[in-house]
């Protein structure tokens, strides 16, 4: 989740208002099944709309993860899914939310699975940042998810984490969507408690990774 308006182009995220002042670590927020309200408004969509550079970073992060998956597929060519590993050691405050996010996505899709592992294909980090939470490439073939303290106090923390993890799996932001869409991010506002991807988002991830698996096996992904 990034703060509204002029977010730095290297970052991509939910686009939530994060204060410039420092904030203390956040305690876990429980996910909710309430998905029918609120909805994004024209004002909230305008506030959180990302730039072309943001969208390019989303794609770059997904491609970096997909390239890391190729090596695993070589070792296990008949695997039915790809395992993407993450390192959460740099975000101990959010251990619960990261575990919940992993469970949410692993229950939602079959072609890709998330698993904690030292080093990892990507990393979670925590701290204070005026951009809020975001996912970004590190310039060395990997990426990281940054979880901002202040923002995670204002918004449902599991939704923030699951949304950012959605970028790793290939999903872009869609702030125009309702609360029932995980990738609508900050568009519906802080009262939105939904931390689950909807059917279309689940299907999109399945399609991306089914296509990715085919490309990996055919050598199209280098």
Automatic annotation (TrEMBL):
It holds the Pfam family Peptidase_M7. InterPro entries: MetalloPept_cat_dom_sf, Peptidase_M7. Residues 27-44 have a biased composition (Low complexity). Residues 27-46 are annotated as: Disordered. Keywords: Disulfide bond, Hydrolase, Metal-binding, Metalloprotease, Protease, Secreted, Signal, Zinc. The keyword Protease applies. It comes from the Bacteria. It catalyses: Hydrolyzes proteins with a preference for Tyr or Phe in the P1' position. Has no action on amino-acid p-nitroanilides. The keyword Disulfide bond applies. Its cofactor is Zn(2+). It is found in: Secreted. One of its GO terms (molecular function) is hydrolase activity. Residues 1-23 form the signal peptide. Its main location: secreted. Its EC number is 3.4.24.77. Gene3D superfamilies: Collagenase (Catalytic Domain). It is an enzyme of class 3 (hydrolase). Belongs to the peptidase M7 family. This is Extracellular small neutral protease. The gene is snpA.
């Amino acid at each position: 989740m990034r703060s509204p308006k002029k977010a730095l182009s290297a970052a991509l995220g939910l686009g939530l208002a994060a204060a410039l002042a420092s904030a203390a670590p956040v305690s876990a927020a429980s996910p909710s099944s309430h998905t029918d309200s609120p909805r994004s408004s024209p004002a909230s969509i305008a506030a959180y709309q990302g730039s072309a550079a943001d969208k390019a970073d989303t794609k770059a992060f997904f491609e970096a993860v997909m390239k890391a998956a190729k090596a695993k597929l070589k070792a296990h060519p008949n695997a039915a899914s790809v395992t993407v590993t993450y390192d959460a050691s740099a975000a101990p405050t959010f251990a619960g939310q990261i575990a919940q996010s992993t469970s949410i996505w692993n229950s939602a899709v079959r072609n890709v699975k998330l698993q904690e592992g030292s080093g990892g294909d990507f990393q979670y980090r925590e701290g204070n940042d005026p951009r809020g939470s975001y996912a970004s490439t590190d310039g060395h073939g990997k990426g990281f998810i940054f979880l901002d303290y202040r923002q995670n106090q204002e918004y449902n923390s599991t939704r923030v984490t699951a949304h950012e993890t959605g970028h790793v799996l290939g999903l872009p932001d869609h702030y125009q969507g309702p609360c029932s869409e995980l990738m609508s991010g900050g568009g519906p506002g802080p009262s939105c408690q939904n931390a689950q991807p909807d059917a279309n988002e689940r299907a999109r991830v399945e399609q991306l990774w089914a296509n990715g698996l085919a490309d990996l096996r055919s050598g199209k992904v280098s």
